[in-house]
Specification:
Layout (H helix, E strand, L loop, with lengths): L4 E5 L17 E5 L1 H8 L6 E5 L7 H11 L5 E4 L5 H10 L10 H15 L3 H7 L3 H5 L5 H13 L6 E4 L6 H11 L7 E5 L5 H9 E2 L11 E2 L1 H4 L4 E5 L6 H13 L1 E3 L6 E3 L3 E6 L3 H6 L5 H7 L2 E4 L10 H16 L5 E2 L1 H9 L5 H15 L5 E2 L31 H19 L4 H8 L3 H10 L5
Parallel strand pairs: 1-2, 1-3, 3-4, 5-12, 5-13, 6-9, 9-12, 14-15
Antiparallel strand pairs: 7-8, 10-11
Helix pairs in contact: 1-2, 14-16, 17-18, 18-19
Amino acid sequence: MGSTQVLWISAEAELPAEWPHHPAVWSIEIQPADEAIAALAVADYAAIVLNLPIPGWTAPTLLEAVRRAAPGVPVLARDPKASVAEAVQLAHLGIYQFLPADESAFGIIDQAIEDARLGDLARMAALVNREDWERMLVGGSREMRQLQHIIRLVAGRRATVLITGETGTGKELGARALHMAGNRRSAPLVAVNCSALPETLLESELFGHVRGAFTGAFQNRIGRFEQAQGGTLFLDEIGELPMELQTKLLRVLQEREVQRLGSSETIKVDIRVVAATNCDLARRIEEGRFREDLFYRLNVVPIEMPPLRRRREDVPLLATHFVDRVCQAEGIAPKVLMRETLDRLCDYAWPGNVRQLENMVEMAVALSGDRRMLAPADFPLPAPLLERPLTGRVPVVAVPDCGLDYEQTLAVIERSILEQALRKTGGNKKAAADMLGLKRTTLSAKVRSLEPVA
């Protein structure tokens, strides 16, 4: 790196008044964000300093744009109002260091430049050169770093993986990341939702059938196991798999071969099986609804997708990621989340996890019109329910001064009641319907209608 100039990206045309004078061998060039990113394509800088906040940009978005424009150049930041959580976020994203407002800042910049010259930027290089699967798992929290570490360890193995986690935590995304990280990435990833089809169709879907195997089987059909040959088969909602099919799945995992319906021929399969569930399989085993030997076959490598409330420091990164993605998909100008908006999003518990956050972002972008800045009012989050027994027939709800979305809050309450009933009955919809005085078909319809709320 031959340059001796430091690029100072700032909304102000001058250095801050408290910034100390430094008669160093390098000089500072001040530019606004848009011009600075354009300059990085043609100019060579020894280091880059982000003087935050910068209107129109979130810190993660600006950092990502700078890193793309100038890979390998150390990026530092200065923000007197930054919280510890914000500083940690940028550190996970590859910021070299936050600068203090005294002479020690110059020593930090000098060290960053020297580290770059010596090639001692493994952390930032790892960020710039992250593989696609890592970019899928947005977040820098301890839980997400641990998840990425496990995926790196097992990606190249054939060991079966069981992914657990609440609804909306991204279990399918975890399965896709696991597939993309391994040596099977060029082969198919085939997904099956075990609760979406009746038992008779599910068996044919998984194992295939031959002509004449049953009424309507007019031709041979290969199943999902064969379709995933050489790749990965993702079995979502594995806890809903009927007992008879559990027995057949166990045999496939043991023998690595499948038998189509109506055929006596066995077909060898070379696949990695990844299963996922949001239910308590241990409890289902106790109730006789899930085979214990199948559980051990599936649970060779357990992976938990953490709920969003346990990694709230990832909320700003996720929200910004979703805003950018929605704007790009809609073909509209990029929108920016105000700092107050991010604070509000971080304070919410997100019972529906990442899926709920994504849905809220999509709604906010759609309803914000031509406004570029997304304000807290664009996110009418349901008021948190007080964790106490129900009073009479009506749950106690805290109504905030800013108001609440009546219909959405009712939907959250209804969903909570349905989930409690299903949890108490181990997922048995008929028993849950009886508990709530509903018909089974009515309960099933309500669960389906409330799915977007999650």
